[in-house]
Specification:
Blueprint: H1 2-20, E1 23-29, H2 38-47, E2 52-58, E3 63-69, H3 75-84, E4 90-91
Antiparallel strand pairs: 1-3, 1-4, 2-3
């Protein structure tokens, strides 16, 4: 009987976590872009992160708007990807959307 209760609790917990996961959109500020080809490098790096659905990078705005599955990745992984590509970034707090 205890096993059945633990199994039921585990199933409910997993279902609860899945219900909170979803697609999220975040804006990253990438201040070190200095040429027209930088966005290509940044977009490629972001698209390699598992869970990223879309990445739109703007040289003019020095930003990247990334749509991702928050069950598969997070903002820290996105900023790590841009940094490893040579372009440190950070979340633009005021424009973050859920």
């Amino acid at each position: 009987m205890k096993t059945l209760r633990w199994t039921a609790a585990a199933v409910l917990m997993a279902a609860s976590l899945a219900a909170h996961a979803g697609v999220r959109k975040v804006e990253l500020t990438v201040p070190t872009m200095d040429c027209d080809t930088c966005p290509i490098t940044i977009r490629v790096a972001l698209m390699k992160v598992p869970g990223v659905k879309k990445a739109v990078v703007s040289y003019e705005r020095r930003n990247a708007v990334v749509t991702f599955d928050d069950a598969a990745t997070n903002v820290a992984a996105l900023t790590k990807a841009t940094e490893e590509a040579g372009y440190p970034s950070f979340e633009a707090e005021a424009k973050t959307k859920r």
